[in-house]
Each structure stands twice: as C-alpha cells, then as structure tokens.
Design a protein that fits this description.
206 residues, mainly alpha, Serine Threonine Protein Phosphatase 5, Tetratricopeptide repeat, 2 domains, 9 helices
C-alpha cells in the first residue's frame, strides 16, 4: 500500500471540508430549530393565555386556551372567547373531542339549558373519540347532569364510557358520580358503577 504524503493529505482535507461542513451546519441548524419549535409549543400549551400562545397556530394551544377560559368564566365575554378558541381548535383538528365537549358546555351555559346544538356537539365528540380517555370526565359529567334531556343513543354511549372509566380510574369514576347534581343522573351513574363492579368481580372468579 502506497503512503500518502502529508501535503497530499492536507490538500484532500481542504477539498473535503468545504463540502462536509455545510451539511453538518445544516443538520445542526435543523436540529436546533426542531428543538426550539417543540420547546416553544410546549411552553405555549403550558401558558395558554399569554406570550406565544396568543399567536400560536397549534390546535393543542387553542384547546388549552379554551380550557383556561372555561375555568375562568366570568360572563358572556369569556364564553365567547372559549367558543372562539374551541372553534379554532376544530378548524385545525376536527377530531379533537375535547373541543366538541367544550362547545357543548358553552352552548348550555349560554342558554341556561341543554340545547339541541349542545347535544349535537356531544354526539360529534363521541364520533371522533368514543371512549376518551382524556375527555371522559368532562363528557360523562355533562351526560349525567343532562340525563333527562339526552336521547337514548347518547345515554348508552355515556354509560359505556362510564364503565370504561370505572375500569381505568375507579376512584375518579366514583367521585364523579357522587358529585352529580341531577338526581336522576346520579342514580343512573351509581347503578352503572355497581354494574361495572359486578362484571369485574365475575371476571375475577373465572
């Protein structure tokens, strides 16, 4: 094998470095940009009502902002803002079940009753995410509180979701039902939990 002289090696290095260095720099820049975007997105979701969240196009940010407005409802202006953020979420991500549920709450609070539009929004949320789980607590609560107004199909879906919730988070499901104000909804929820517990006990004996 012939030896490469130091001068030739140096010349080769000078020819290779210019082509390699731009690629390395580009890869580093892309990695930094990706990390920055991910960090800013997480920061915006964590602080939904301020800073970069106000201009972020991320569906998750709008969903978080809608949730924040729902927690701080003070009047019709907050309801309007919560609705606007929920609709912006759905414009970017129509399968975001939590946004449909928030629209149902907004519609109900605005009119002080369960409207057909609120029920349609709950139905849409079940179409995109039948069993949650992230939206289960808010959706089952809505269903049980509005139990007398719910059509049979939504009642059935809510009971299936409550049973699934009992299996996933038994204590949370129990607290949810205990906190229901509507008497009929609380009774139905309690019977559904008892039925779910009986099924679980039967499975354990097999």
């Amino acid at each position: 094998m012939s030896e490469v002289s130091p001068a030739a090696a140096s010349a080769t290095a000078r020819t290779v470095r210019p082509s390699v260095q731009p690629r390395v720099a580009l890869a580093a820049a892309l990695a930094a940009a990706t990390a920055l975007a991910a960090g800013l997105g997480a920061w915006a979701v964590a602080r939904p009502l301020g800073g970069l969240a106000a201009v972020s196009p991320l569906a998750g940010v709008h969903d978080a902002r809608a949730a924040a407005h729902m927690k701080a409802i003070l009047g019709s202006e907050d309801l309007d803002e919560a609705e606007r953020e929920a609709r912006m979420t759905l414009a970017q991500s129509p399968a975001q079940a939590s946004a449909w549920v928030r629209l149902a709450y907004v519609e109900t609070w605005r009119h002080r009753r369960v409207t057909p539009e609120a029920l349609r929004n709950i139905s849409r949320s079940y179409k995109v995410s039948p069993l949650g789980p992230d939206v289960s607590r808010a959706r089952v609560k809505f269903a049980l509180e509005a139990w007398p107004e719910l059509p049979r199909a939504l009642q059935d879906q809510a009971l299936v979701e409550l049973e699934t919730m009992r299996w996933r988070k038994p204590e949370e499901a129990g607290r949810l039902v205990q906190g229901i104000v509507d008497l009929q909804g609380r009774l139905v929820g309690g019977m559904a939990l008892a039925d779910a517990d009986a099924k679980a006990a039967l499975r354990r004996t097999r």
